[in-house]
Amino acid sequence: MKIDFKxxxxxxxxxxxxxxxxxxxxFTITHDIPKSNERLVDQLWGAWIMAFGTVLNYFFSSNxxxxxxxxxxxxxxxxxxxxxxxQSLLNDNEKx
Length: 96
Hints:
With 96 residues, this protein is mainly alpha-helical. It has helices at 5-30, 38-60, 62-75, 79-95. The two termini are 40 Å apart.
């Protein structure tokens, strides 16, 4: 299975989200947040936790495998053509 630009983009975006989550956690723990910015940081945390959860959900649920299956089906030979090819082979063998 070849890896195209879409896969690189997904993996890159997932890496950015995970590293950003870890950095946000580190800076929140090690730095004091001014009272005037607490609401902003809370909103940032909420958005980043949702993005982090989405990344985990995609890579550790059936979505990634489903995407692989869809790609395999897209690249496969339709069954009607396979049956017609097999039927013509059977007819050729019967003529001999």
